[in-house]
C-alpha cells in the first residue's frame, strides 16, 4: 500500500493542477494579509473560502483521478495485490497531496507575516485542521461515487451534485425547516442536522472558535451552549473523524463485490 501511496502522491505532485492549487492558496494568503493587515480578520475571510472551495477541489480531484487512472488500476488488479491496498493507497495519496498543498499554500504567507507571534495562531491551526478533514472526507465520498458509477460523465455529475447539496441546498432546507417549525423546540434538531453535514459542522466549529457565533442568531446560542464546551469540541471532532471513516469503510465493502 505504501508503494501505491507514494506513486499516487508523486503522480499528483507532478500534476500542474497541484501546483495551481498550491499557488492559488499561496497568492490568496498574501492578498488577504495585504488587504486586511490583520491576521485575525484574514482568518475570518479565509474561513468562508476554505469551507466551500476545499470540498469542491477534493470532490473533483477524487473523481478525476479515479477515472483517469482506471486502466493503470486494472493493471494493478491483475497482479497478486490486495485491491483494498491499491485503492487505499490511491485515496491516501490524493488526500495527503491536497492537504499538503492547502497547509503549505496558506502556511507560508501567514508564517512570514508573523503568525507565531499572533493570538490567531490557534484559530488558524483549527482552520487548517478543518480544511484537512474536508479534504479526506470529500475525496472518500467522491471515490464512493466513482466506484458506484462506471460512466465518467454521470460520475462527475453525481459528485458535483453531492457537493452542491452539502454546500448549498442542505443549508436552504435546514433554514426553511427552522422557519416552518419555529413554534417547536428545535435545539436537538439543529444539533443533529448540523452533524449530518460536515461542511456546516466545520463552519460552526470555526465560528465558535473565532467567538463570532452571534452571527448565527438563535442557532448560534444553541451551538455555543453545546459546541462551546470541551465535550462539544471533542464530540465534533469525533464526528468529523466518523465522516472520514464511514465512506472509507463503505468503499472497502464496495470493493469486495465490484467486478473490474
Report on the structure:
Helix content is 83%, strand content 0%. By secondary structure, it is mainly α. It is globular and about 55 Å long. The mean pLDDT is 80.
Describe this structure in a few short sentences:
The chain has 260 residues and is mainly α. It is built from 11 helices and no strands.
Q: In whole angstroms, how far apart are the ends?
A: 19 Å
Number of strands: 0
Structural class: mainly alpha
Stretches where pLDDT falls below 50 for ≥5 residues?
Answer: none
Which radius of gyration do the C-alpha atoms yield? 19 Å
The main pleated sheet reads as:
none
Main attributes?
260 residues, mainly alpha, 11 helices, 83% helix
Secondary-structure blueprint:
Layout: H1 2-13, H2 16-36, H3 39-68, H4 70-77, H5 83-112, H6 121-148, H7 152-180, H8 187-195, H9 198-209, H10 218-227, H11 230-257
Helix pairs in contact: 1-5, 2-3, 2-5, 3-5, 3-6, 3-7, 3-9, 5-6, 5-11, 6-7, 6-9, 6-11, 9-11
